[in-house]
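Quick question, first post here. What does this chain look like in 3D?
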Amino acid sequence: MEVINLKEKFELFNDHWSPKIIGQLNGQDVKLAKLQGEFVWHDHKNEDELFYVLKGSLIIEFRDKKVTLNEGEMLVIPRGVEHKPIAKEEVWILLFEPSNIKHTGDVSHEYTKETFDKI
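> Answer (accepted):
Ran it through. Tokens below.
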């Protein structure tokens, strides 16, 4: 067991849309990511996904609405719900996702990651 300082972990990387694993529990990865710009429309057929905004403001677009998450706010996206995150300025987020989740669901895109770095 060790204390994890999120600010120090965020200082270790600058790339966007590339989550980094900082911990694991009960089959879930705890990840940090920096976001900027628009991601790809995707869903996760079998996994729920938790977004927690640590810095900035994140828009999550759904087919029927948009939700804005500000610092200190979180949202759980249920499995199978198509969504597209949008960050007009750099956003720092904490994610909780099953360890076997596909980054962009069944969509293949330049942002798709097959593996995630551990920091």
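The beta strands are 20-25, 28-38, 49-55, 57-62, 66-70, 74-77, 83-98.
The two ends are 15 Å apart (CA to CA).
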